[in-house]
């Protein structure tokens, strides 16, 4: 067995005895002072530290306290070796972050047993930490890890004036895949997709995570819009190569995904112009924009990438123009795609509000018309599907608020309402989301009732505007 143990002791004789006693574990590294210990740790983080409590200079207790402040040593056991067997000393040692004590002169059996115990505990702790960070089914990072990294990376991007991009993608017609091939095959499909596409986010700071169900997210620090779009397109192409059969897809004969991309870039970062309050606002908005882009990719026929600039609704579109949709080869013709209107370009288009664009209370005409490139029919279809999707909000808001997925649904509703220019609904969803985050269930319940009422109004107004609505 070869374990990387660091022994810190200013007494070379005592150290030699301990090194001999630990020979079963391999040869420990040795440091005779705090400075040497620091040098060894910087060289490589050890698996376990044995520390002489009676060190001169800063002393063992001070050194232990310093080591405990080092994040790299968070899970590394530090065992004090001491000739002082006094309860008070032991208490002070534990308060400084020591994991255990061994009395000098050390007994070989006891020393080995203690070292073994702490190594085992440390491995279990690391395993648990890894499990808490990864998704059990696919082995990629989980949502929690993504969210923690998203906040840290957004703060870093704002501080350093770096770009930060996000890809959010969702497997197309995955419910139909499960229905056709069974749930275990669905699980295997998710594993395959995660394995193949996560390998493409290669930089150490990239995070590929399962966002939920059949939805994944890729966080790309220091990556521009072009870089993120290139990667997203390459991911679509990889799915095409993987060619996992999906005969019930309706989009292609293999598994495809729809992707939404957004980038926090220089032009869109000014919090005053953007109306934001700092990193957490920017982080939430990144997800929201990617989600809106994904929604548009779905609406425009699936199996494609749509880009949405980070701040375009508050600022003019960047040079390079409107949202970009990228279609994949090998897809069925638009006419085959049930329920989707692929005649429209996804993303923003510059145009004035056409006279025929519906006037509906609570809908910002200009915004919805621009976002859907004047495609009135698509607008009707999407609004109809939004109202259908959240019909339960109209019927029983109080029960709905207790559902475990309520935060996610409200978040989705907010994004979809924004895309459709349903600004009153968007604003209500935003406030509900914020109340839920503050665990103010009473306010969230009241707001959700208003959301339900607004949805009812939309249903009513739209029924008189679009044919075939009931
Ligand atoms: P769309 O193209 O609009 O995304 O359609 P969809 O069918 O993919 O979307 P929908 O949200 O209707 O269905 C998602 C399905 O994904 C339903 C759910 O059973 C399935 N799913 C979610 N998580 C898992 C999982 O862990 N394993 C399996 N096998 N299926 C899952
Ligand atoms: Mg899906």
UniProtKB/TrEMBL annotation:
UniProt enzyme class: transferase
UniProt KW keywords: Phosphoprotein, Two-component regulatory system
Transmembrane segments: none
Domain called GGDEF: residue spans: 162-310
HPt domain residues: 371-469
EC numbers: 2.7.7.65
Keyword Phosphoprotein: yes
List of residues that carry 4-aspartylphosphate: 52
Domain of life, per lineage: Bacteria
Entry keyword Phosphoprotein: yes
CDD domains cross-referenced by the UniProt entry: GGDEF (cd01949), HPT (cd00088), REC_OmpR (cd17574)
Ranges for domain Response regulatory: 4-119
Modified-residue entries (Phosphohistidine), positions: 411
Enzymatic reactions: 2 GTP = 3',3'-c-di-GMP + 2 diphosphate
NCBIfam families reported in the protein's UniProt record: GGDEF
Descriptive protein name: diguanylate cyclase
Organism: Novosphingobium pituita
């Amino acid at each position: 067995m070869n374990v990387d143990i660091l022994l810190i002791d200013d007494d070379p004789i005592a150290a030699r005895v301990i090194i001999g006693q630990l020979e079963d574990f391999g040869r420990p590294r040795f440091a005779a002072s705090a400075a040497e210990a620091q040098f060894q740790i910087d060289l490589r983080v050890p698996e376990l530290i044995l520390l002489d409590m009676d060190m001169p200079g800063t002393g063992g207790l001070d050194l232990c306290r310093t080591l405990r402040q080092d994040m790299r040593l968070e899970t590394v056991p530090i065992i004090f070796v001491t000739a002082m067997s006094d309860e008070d000393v032991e208490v002070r040692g534990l308060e400084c972050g020591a994991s255990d004590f061994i009395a000098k002169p050390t007994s070989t059996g006891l020393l080995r047993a203690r070292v073994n115990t702490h190594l085992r505990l440390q491995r279990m702790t690391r395993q648990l930490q890894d499990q808490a960070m990864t998704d059990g089914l696919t082995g990629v990072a989980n949502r929690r890890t993504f969210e923690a990294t998203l906040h840290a990376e957004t703060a870093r991007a704002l501080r350093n004036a770096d770009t930060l991009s996000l890809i959010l993608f969702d497997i197309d017609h995955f419910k139909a895949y499960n229905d056709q091939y069974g749930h275990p095959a669905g699980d295997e499909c998710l594993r395959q997709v995660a394995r193949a596409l996560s390998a493409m986010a290669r930089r150490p700071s990239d995070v590929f995570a399962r966002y939920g169900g059949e939805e994944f997210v890729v966080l790309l620090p220091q990556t521009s819009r072009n870089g993120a779009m290139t990667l997203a397109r390459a991911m679509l192409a990889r799915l095409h190569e993987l060619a996992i059969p999906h005969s019930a897809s309706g989009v292609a004969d293999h598994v495809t995904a729809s992707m939404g991309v957004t980038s926090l870039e220089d032009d869109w970062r000014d919090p005053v112009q953007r109306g934001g309050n700092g990193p957490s606002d920017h982080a939430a908005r990144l997800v929201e924009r990617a989600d809106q882009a994904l929604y548009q990719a779905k609406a425009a026929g699936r199996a494609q990438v749509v880009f949405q600039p980070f701040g375009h609704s508050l600022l003019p579109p960047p040079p390079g123009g409107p949202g970009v949709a990228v279609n994949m080869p090998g897809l069925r013709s638009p006419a085959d795609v049930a329920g989707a209107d692929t005649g429209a370009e996804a993303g923003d288009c510059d145009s004035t509000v056409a006279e025929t664009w519906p006037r509906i209370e609570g809908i910002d005409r200009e915004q919805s018309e621009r976002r859907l490139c004047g495609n009135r029919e698509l607008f009707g279809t999407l609004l109809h599907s939004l109202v259908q999707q959240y019909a339960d909000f109209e019927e029983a808001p109080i029960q709905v608020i207790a559902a475990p997925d309520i935060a996610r649904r409200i978040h989705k509703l907010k994004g979809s309402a924004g895309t459709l220019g349903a600004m009153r609904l968007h604003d209500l969803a935003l406030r509900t989301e914020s109340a839920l985050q503050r665990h103010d269930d009473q306010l969230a319940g009241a707001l959700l009732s208003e959301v339900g009422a607004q949805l009812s109004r939309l249903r009513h107004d739209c029924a008189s505007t679009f044919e075939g609505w009931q």
